[in-house]
Amino acid sequence: MTNTTERAARTESSARAPTSQTPTEQTLTTGPFPASRKVYTPGTRYPDVRVPHREIDLTPTVEMIGGLARHTPNPSVRVYDTGGPYTDPDAPLDLHAGLPHARPWLHNHPDLHTLPGATSAYTRAQNARADLADLRYPGAHTIRRARAGRTITQLQAARAGVITPEMEFVAIREALRQAEAFELRHQHPGNALGFQMPREITPEVVRAEIARGRAVLPANINHPELEPMIIGRAFRVKVNANIGNSAVKASVADEVEKLVWATRWGADTVMDLSTGKHIHQTREWIVRNSAVPIGTVPIYQALEKVGGVPEALTWDVYRDTLIEQAEQGVDYFTVHAGVRLAHLPLTVRRRTGIVSRGGSILARWCLAHHQENFLYTHFREICEIMAAFDVTFSLGDGLRPGSIEDANDAAQFAELDTLGELTKIAQELGVQTMIEGPGHVPLHLLQENVDRQLQVCGEAPFYTLGPLVTDVAPAYDHITSAVGAAVIGWMGVSMLCYVTPKEHLGLPDKNDVRDGVIAYRLAAHAADLAKGVPGAQARDNAISKARFEFRWEDQFNLALDPERARAFHDATLPAEAAKTAHFCSMCGPHFCSMKLSHDLRADDVLLGLQDKAREFREGGGELYRSAPEEVTT
Amino acid sequence: MTNTTERAARTESSARAPTSQTPTEQTLTTGPFPASRKVYTPGTRYPDVRVPHREIDLTPTVEMIGGLARHTPNPSVRVYDTGGPYTDPDAPLDLHAGLPHARPWLHNHPDLHTLPGATSAYTRAQNARADLADLRYPGAHTIRRARAGRTITQLQAARAGVITPEMEFVAIREALRQAEAFELRHQHPGNALGFQMPREITPEVVRAEIARGRAVLPANINHPELEPMIIGRAFRVKVNANIGNSAVKASVADEVEKLVWATRWGADTVMDLSTGKHIHQTREWIVRNSAVPIGTVPIYQALEKVGGVPEALTWDVYRDTLIEQAEQGVDYFTVHAGVRLAHLPLTVRRRTGIVSRGGSILARWCLAHHQENFLYTHFREICEIMAAFDVTFSLGDGLRPGSIEDANDAAQFAELDTLGELTKIAQELGVQTMIEGPGHVPLHLLQENVDRQLQVCGEAPFYTLGPLVTDVAPAYDHITSAVGAAVIGWMGVSMLCYVTPKEHLGLPDKNDVRDGVIAYRLAAHAADLAKGVPGAQARDNAISKARFEFRWEDQFNLALDPERARAFHDATLPAEAAKTAHFCSMCGPHFCSMKLSHDLRADDVLLGLQDKAREFREGGGELYRSAPEEVTT
């Protein structure tokens, strides 16, 4: 299934010898998608903005007209591209030096100052350990922080009326302009269910959406490698993929490859949920080599630092973890500050209790100490740290339902109300904020989730896990949840956290990650079509045109997963000639509806039809109302 | 992946030696699902009604209370079962004799008479050919037909106030009564979007729904092997799987195994779309060995009979094909009588023309002859034939959209209007009727499809192909379409025609069939939860309870695909001990939210929580409204 990319990886990779545990270019899947070119669009406000897209080149349409073959070129199709430099054969790749800086403007930012080194006590202790030398990321990383008294978050800039380079970047990225001659512009008007989608994405639209808290642009100032992206209802629905080692399985090289692999297939952000060994070192490798925002759940690492005993967690350990990760460049933090002591009794009679890892850790802490959640009591301090690095909040839903039965219950909505309070505080303090949502919810209860979240969180972007619309299909939960994800994306959710086929069962391997990401890419795209993202339908139109014209290669190349589309075709008709055949194995040549339909279009038939049509028009409008007996011609 | 079933197949199969092309028990996948028993419920009105369900036995819940293990038994869960005798180890299986007759009352039905043999000219010619002896189904098949002047369809009976044995059968089958002690009855009230779901499924509800044309019970009088099922909005959403050989691939044995395989995973009906060789003989093997309704598209075989040239089709050939298949016992026919000459000009500017095989065949015939579709002009005669055998109409949507761009266009809805006219005629003539629907439709245009269909077809059951909600994911179209299927099932569609991962690319193999059926079973179940089918949530509740209690075996056994769930778990933690572990590989033991959540429930903590809860209640209701600073306890 992965032959093409693996071959590409070998072609593109350098000759650096692999070390035992750390990643090398050989352990990565790189190289372009078939028939695809990377194109970069420069900014007009900021010349060092350089926005990547992918252009898929198509073959011409060949028609037989009066015995002569007429070739009509098909314009290339430009698509949103999350792959970063890894899918650009011309980009230099050196994992030990990190990705090139897509945000060079950070180097001389007047409101930032450069720290002499990490200020996190934990980071300094880790850096001092000789035994970790082999695991440590060897490249340079300059650590920056907001100058005292300066406001540096995208939210603060947006409110001050400033369009940052990041805002111009995402405006160009989202607008996704097709070639001037592009002929596939037809699009059904969307129905964004009460939301007014912008007709055109401009830097000013981006600024305005961020300013009103309706979009976030997660971009830590310590992540210059990032290609900025935006999460908000006015924009394309985004997909997050989770990676991370666990106590059961761990390897740094594996994690970096998972990052590259997940973004190759279309993950817009990646959450590193590692709970195993060497979390700090693994994360450094990941952030330095990631073109997408990295999210984390800092409480996981804090728990590791106190020996895995929730009761032993302290604000000081957590605080240092926030700083450690913010200095590394993590772009967003899941913070379960809504898991309040007062909400816990509401979970006792649940079918599946608390299913969020972070939520259960904090619930245990609250109960052991009979104290309010320290993330809640220290929330303003958390905000101040995050504002100094422009880390975005992903306010965690620690009490999300873990089963259909627990959906939309009192515990879930009590926490959501708290997240609403916290959103206001975070935004006041200049911190960009999105809100995490469920989980397991039947189809007819999805709307209530969106309605309540919009209301209590002031339209802050909603970021849901699925939701799974039934519990009965373990091993297929990428599908049960893609159903919920597509629908809730249409309803207004801005980012969808993927679920893999292994959810509830085990750790995903690479194939599971691919299955999960593609399932969510198609769900997000379905939501974009439904809410009416301008231009979203162009790719559907192009692939359908290719399909109807038996341009098999183009159909494969326009697919979300070109390799698998080709492999599935070749499983029945492997011969190269079959890729130009005017039928496929599904129906065979005699029964091919597409072929028959083409014959209908041949000029002579078409002329006949047009005569017929004129006759019908002249005969009056009641063509399709007459009873069966009347119209036999 | 299929070890368990393959092993089961070997265990259950008899010692009959396989012939070259015809099926034997060895070529089938049979045997029970893990921890499952087949149970049969007798009718009360009709003692020879014997309704199959599957009971999944569960292990007890083990709790440690004050240092002692307390075992609490979990009642078995009864589920709807499409597997037929193939999943019953006690059922005799002999493919050469056909399945036992689940409808013995047909043998002495007063309104039926037994024909001396087939009346179809084609059947008689085929039966006379010595060269086909090896391929021919060797068992007996008695052919019946309504006596002159007698009405025998389920619709006619229902209108006359008669509850037939088939109606009692499906009422028991749908009601799916759980054990008296069943503790998992909690269910979210559904939202059937304006439709009044029955609170309880009784034979009278079944009769009434059939009488008003809002449900069909496809059950040809020549298919006594059938276990009756019902298709209608008041009932569980059903799933159809397509099988069939094509000119590219063909084998009788393969087709029978596909039937058994598809129903094993949950197909409620199977359409035989064969277009290759020996369609007649293959179909006889299939119907004689099928416990589910078989649907066909008679125009496919008619086209084969005229050498694959659409223009050569005649009413006589088609008519004989209807009789041939009705005498074999086909339960429903797709008839593309709505593809009218007048509609064809509406398809000329489409992105993907006509993508229905049947639709394109008939369009070509209409244009070649410049005549109205002969299925339309002969519609009443078709009805008369079908009424004599109680074959149900599946009025085909030959002009369904084949791309997002073509969704909900004038051609599609013009045809739907015609199908509305035809529905009235068919029902008048006593023929049960359902309506086929698209296809490719973006999420926000699904509702219009349902609304229009309900309106113009008088609430006759709607049977859609997916729909796919985007065109961009070939190789994942079981997922793009499961999204549309789940949503449109919720909106009121009664049966969902599955799509496999190979759609648009090639012929599905067994694994594709399984992937497609399971994707659709979960979509149908999601729809059932949303529309509020009584008892639908019991299986979700049971699997969630098992998950929360780390009863891994029960979680696997309650899954739609127990084998794959187990295999995915074992991929990371294969040891048998891991199946009783209170964690899994996803988070490892320290980070297991379920484990932490259980600790929260241990009695001492629970008591603490209850004290706390009392304290909160006594302190007044404003628990979740206070600002962060105020509630630090």
CATH class of one domain in chain A: Alpha Beta
Our measurement of the CA-to-CA distance between the termini of chain A, rounded to an integer number of angstroms, reads 53 Å
- The H-level CATH homologous superfamily of one domain in chain A, spelled out, is Radical SAM ThiC family, central domain
Low-pLDDT residue spans of chain A: 1-20, 620-633
Oligomer: homodimer
Strand content of chain A: 5-15%
Structural class of chain A: alpha/beta
Report the average pLDDT across residues of chain A. Answer: 89
Greatest contact between two chains: A-B, 153 and 154 residues
Give the strand order of the largest sheet of chain A, numbering strands 1, 2, ... along the chain.
10-11-12-13-14-15-16-17
| Strand segment tally of chain A | 17
CATH-defined architecture of one domain in chain A: Alpha-Beta Barrel
Number of helices of chain A: 21
The shape of chain A is globular
Q: Examine the coordinates and then state which fold CATH places here, giving the name of the CATH topology of one domain in chain A.
A: TIM Barrel
Helical amount of chain A: 25-40%
**Major β-sheet profile of chain A:** 8 strands, parallel, barrel
Radius of gyration of chain A: 26 Å
